[in-house]
Amino acid sequence: MSTRILRHLHLWSCVALCSLPCAAAPAQDALAQLQLEARLFQSTSGTFSADVLAPGGPELWNVVTGPDSSTAMLVVVAVKLAPGAVLRAQTPVRLIAREQATRGGHRRILLDRSLPLGALARGGTTHLAFWLQGTGCRPLDLQVTMRAADAAAPLSAAATVPFACGE
Q1: Domains in the chain, please, with CATH?
Q2: Residue 147's closest CA among 123, 125, 116?
Q3: Contact 47, 69 (CB under 8 A)
Q4: Beta-carbon neighbour count of residue 36 at 10 Å?
Q5: Which of 92, 99, 105, 167 has the lowest CB atom count within 10 Å?
Q6: In DSSP terms, which residues pair with 95 in a beta bridge?
Q7: 10 Å Cβ neighbour count for 115?
Q8: From CA 73, how far away is CA 68, in angstroms rounded?
């Protein structure tokens, strides 16, 4: 078989093997790793906070008020390909952001959007930006998925932004 065909067969076998969430360290033969970052847009200064998902990130109590008030957030999805891996530039990356339900309430969807992966060098990394409006008082569940063409299962990662408000 040609080298190109062997590479494609190896690529699709890696996609099939990576059916677990990929937010942590990738599996040995994983096609890619997905990572989430979330930064509050601070409306009084026009700046972004540190990553609220990182250990030691900003406090998320009553962020809609105060000197660094925020009601919007930038979610960045990093797609890191395994060494030698390739993906089509049009591979969709989908982010769904849902507020957690209150007692007797429903889960409001703040965003359900897909963006194409874009140009990405073999084994490289790219970042996709998703803008969320109306954030700040209810915990927010983030779910990102990416499905390569003809893949058996999508790659995925999830995180919760633990917003809360009160007196």
Answers
A1: 3-161 (2.60.40.10)
A2: 116
A3: no
A4: 20
A5: 167
A6: 113, 144
A7: 13
A8: 13
Q: Which two tokens stand for residue 60?
A: 């998320």
Local structure of 158: helix, strand or coil:
strand
Cα 109 from Cα 89, distance rounded (Å) = 27
DSSP 61: B
Q: How far apart are CA 132 and CA 73, in angstroms?
A: 5
The backbone torsions φ and ψ at residue 78, rounded to the nearest 5 degrees and listed phi first, read -95, 130
| Amino acid identity at 53 | L
- If we measure between CA atoms, which residue out of 126, 111, 143 comes closest to residue 33? 126
Q: What share of the chain is helix, strand, coil (3-state, %, to 5)?
A: 10, 40, 50
DSSP letter string over 73-138?
EEEEEEEEEPTT----TT-EEEEEEEEPPPTT----EEEEEEEE-----TT-EEEEEEEEES-SSS
pLDDT tens for 44-84 read 999 999 999 999 999 899 999 988 999 999 999 999 998 88
